[in-house]
Specification:
6-stranded mixed sheet; 15 helices; about 35% helix; globular; binds nicotinamide-adenine-dinucleotide
Length: about 500
């Protein structure tokens, strides 16, 4: 008797129709939106979209919830968030599979993302009971007290690349601080967002209206949310041009904004760096998540004395990366998220061929197994001028642009030569250099002898055109509060 054929990782999938009954927190009465699997082009989920009336309903629910005990009961908020973190961890397998099917990323990264999302929730569950101000003696009999109050109704608008960690990175501190939240996911990843929010919405202690979700395009649903008079704050993660537009739209209402935007992050390798570690680090920095990470180390800067050897070894490593379906555990480079993304990346690769030299990848994958998916080979381009669009613009795909420098000053000048300032990496065994260069780099985060390590405790954010405000950590909680000052005069003789 022959052994049964191994089940394909795709065998047992069924189309998800969301929101199914019971998802009352999702306000959608508009037309359907299908989300597709970037590996196969198949429809993964069908989600209804929201209308302007749905946005009104979600915001009104949030405003009503701000009159509940949620605002003042940190212990309640902590309990709800702890249970939510637990619920996410219990659903890692199911959410990771949906994430890979809807967004395309490798299944190991999808699992890490769900766990990362749970980490943020767990961290802010603890912080929910520690939202407090200061007491200040201001003079004889006079005291000042500051309170940290929730801002009100917060719109959390997310991108498609890390739709769950970037969701909870804003959602969890907003809730921990006592706000109500209306989530608007990117149109490429609505199903996994709704599925990830559902256990929170089902918590028996979560007051009605504290959490809502609306679905649809940025132009229509996003704009309606950002300009809604009942929304007090916008926590936006996405492209710089969209962020600028969101800030303009929010200006009339003088709404508070927290903007986490694009990047073109430099990764500097000095000749005294541990070479094997730097090679592995530079490869992962550029190609994890197929380069679709805002902090991707998409510019590699190498010191000239080691450049030949370093680049030769890098090209070997990159050429050996396996391109494939995100559900296949052997895959290194999963498809990018959409056809339009794939086309835009190939346009950059073509430009790189004209302006520089491609030392790895660069040619479309012709094998039949890649035909239905949005695949791009990992590509390394050298010999570009600092003005090249491959150096200046965010490609958001598996394309690494390399520059060579002669000394520390030139390294810093090249590193700082774009409008972005999200993150940077540097590899050296010289501690003095590490401090010196880290202080000179224009970036919200600098990784030293590592890259793309995130901890809920440690703030992240951008300078220059990479953002406004900080997420994660204590500062990330404070972003979602307003300070109210009370001034007590207990000394009648002063009048
Ligand atoms: P995007 O700017 O196209 O969309 C982000 C979100 O904004 C989506 O939900 C979209 O529907 C919404 N939107 C669009 N127009 C809007 C409007 N007028 N009003 C309100 N909302 C609107 O970004 P994307 O393509 O989904 O994500 C990729 C981008 O996100 C990259 O530039 C990446 O660098 C950036 N990003 C930044 C960070 C960070 O932490 N700095 C993290 C992840 C991604």
């Amino acid at each position: 008797m022959s052994a049964p054929a191994a089940a394909s990782p795709r065998a047992a999938w069924r189309l998800l129709e969301l929101p199914a009954t019971g998802h009352r927190f999702v306000h959608t009465s508009g037309p359907d939106l299908d989300s597709t699997d970037p590996a196969t082009g198949e429809t993964v989920a069908r989600v209804r979209t929201s209308t302007a009336a749905d946005v009104d309903a979600a915001v009104a629910a949030g405003r009503a919830a701000m009159r509940s005990r949620w605002r003042d009961d940190g212990a309640l908020r902590g309990r709800v968030l702890y249970r939510y973190a637990q619920a996410l961890r219990e659903r890692v397998d199911e959410l990771a599979e949906l994430l890979t099917r809807e967004q395309g990323k490798r299944i190991a990264e999808a699992r890490a993302e769900v766990n990362g999302a749970a980490n943020h929730v767990e961290y802010y569950a603890g912080q929910a009971r520690a939202v407090h101000g200061r007491a200040l003696p201001l003079g004889p009999g006079v005291h000042g007290v500051t309170l940290r109050e929730p801002v009100g109704v917060v719109a959390v608008i997310t991108p498609w690349n890390w739709p769950l960690t970037l969701l909870t990175r804003s959602l969890a501190p907003a809730l921990a601080a006592g706000n109500a939240v209306v989530v608007k996911p990117a149109s490429l990843t609505p199903a996994v967002t709704i599925a990830a929010l559902a256990p929170l919405a089902a918590d028996p202690e979560l007051p009605e209206g504290v959490l809502s979700c609306v679905v649809g395009s940025g132009d229509v649903v996003g704009t309606a949310l950002v300009t809604h008079p009942g929304v007090d704050m916008i926590a936006f993660t996405g492209e710089t041009t969209t962020g600028v537009n969101v800030m303009k739209l929010a200006a009339d209402g003088l709404k508070k904004v927290a903007l986490e935007l694009g990047g073109k992050s430099p990764n500097l390798v000095f000749a005294d760096a541990p070479m094997d570690k730097a090679l592995a680090g530079a490869t992962a920095a550029a190609f994890s998540s197929s380069g679709q990470i805002c902090t991707a180390g998409s510019r590699l800067l190498v010191e000239r004395s080691i450049a030949d050897e370093f680049l030769e070894r890098l090209a070997e490593r990159v050429t050996a990366l396996r391109v494939g379906d995100g559900l296949d555990p052997a895959t290194d480079i999963a498809p990018v998220a959409s056809r339009s993304q794939q086309r835009a990346i190939f346009d950059y690769i073509d430009l790189g061929r004209t302006e520089g030299e491609i030392i790895a990848g660069g040619t479309p994958l012709t094998d039949e197994k890649y035909a239905a998916g949005c695949y791009v080979p990992p590509t390394v381009v050298t010999g570009l001028s600092p003005q090249s669009r491959l150096i200046q613009e965010e490609i958001f795909g598996p394309v690494l642009a390399v520059q060579v420098f002669d000394d520390e000053d030139e390294a810093v000048a090249l590193a700082n030569c774009t409008d972005y300032g999200l993150a940077a990496g540097l590899w050296t065994s010289n501690l003095q250099r590490a401090w010196r260069v880290a202080r000179e780099l224009q970036a919200g985060t600098v990784w030293i002898n590592t890259y793309n390590r995130f901890y809920s405790e440690l703030e992240v954010g951008g300078v220059k055109r990479s953002g406004v405000g900080r997420q994660q950590g204590q500062v990330g909680l404070e972003e979602f509060t307003e300070v109210k000052s009370l001034n007590f005069d207990n000394n009648p003789t002063l009048w």
